From TrEMBL:
The lineage of its organism: Eukaryota, Fungi, Dikarya, Ascomycota, Pezizomycotina. One of its GO terms (molecular function) is structural molecule activity. Residues 1-27 are annotated as: Disordered. It holds the Pfam family ESCRT-II. It comes from Penicillium solitum. The keyword Cytoplasm applies. Belongs to the VPS25 family. One of its GO terms (cellular component) is ESCRT II complex. It is found in: Cytoplasm. SUPFAM superfamilies: Winged helix' DNA-binding domain. GO terms for biological process: macroautophagy; protein transport to vacuole involved in ubiquitin-dependent protein catabolic process via the multivesicular body sorting pathway. This is Vacuolar protein-sorting-associated protein 25.
Length: 201
């Protein structure tokens, strides 16, 4: 088991106002961009694809114990909300996506009293499925596996992909990335749930 080295926090993380939503629109935009970048870097560093906010607000990502500053659940949710929007919508370029209770994307905003509403877990796209699709194609080409059939399990856990960034990937993220390739006519998925095979073209 390899130990993950400590996460290198950016200088802004040690700047107290970073943890307080800024009233000025321009400053707030810059603050949201920095939060988005930090969340993506954190998730990438820890090979984390889903971010459960209720747990995450207790981690160093949102809680700087040295400063005694933190983002609470509502503020963290605001940052993720901004990350889910496209740049055209004034957001963070769709670098996050809420996950509904059923595991799919959620557009619902209702919250019950316990704060356990749909907006509690999000995908963090430090690489979007389209970007992962490109990475997979590059790997398939470079290893001469075009035309071969691999299982989804092999792609995620196989020895051949151990040195790749997608090794150990969340299965749902892998399937979404592979579906991008299906739409592009570069792959075919067959077999039942949990037993999927993929053929690359």
């Amino acid at each position: 088991m390899t130990t993950i080295p400590p996460f290198p926090f950016p200088p802004t993380y040690n700047f107290p106002p970073f943890f307080t939503p800024q009233p000025n629109t321009t400053t707030r935009q810059s603050q949201l961009e920095k939060w988005s970048s930090l969340i993506q870097s954190w998730c990438r560093h820890h090979h984390q694809y889903r971010l459960p906010l209720i747990e995450a607000v207790e981690t160093p990502l949102f809680h700087n114990t040295a400063l005694r500053k933190r983002l609470d659940l509502r503020d963290a949710r605001e940052v993720i909300d901004w990350m889910t929007k496209s740049e055209e919508e004034g957001g963070g370029g769709r670098r996050a996506e809420w996950i509904s209770d059923s595991g799919g994307a959620s557009s619902s905003v209702s919250l019950n009293g316990a704060g356990q509403g749909p907006k509690t877990v999000a995908w963090i796209w430090w690489r979007r499925p389209e970007e992962w699709a490109d990475v997979l194609v590059e790997w398939v080409e470079s290893t001469g596996q075009r035309g071969s059939v691999l299982t989804v399990y092999e792609l995620i856990h196989g020895e051949g992909a151990m040195s790749q960034e997608f090794h150990g990937m969340d299965t749902d993220v892998m399937l979404r990335s592979l579906n991008v390739l299906v739409k592009r006519g570069r792959a075919q998925i067959f077999g039942g749930e949990g037993q999927e095979g993929v053929k690359f073209f």
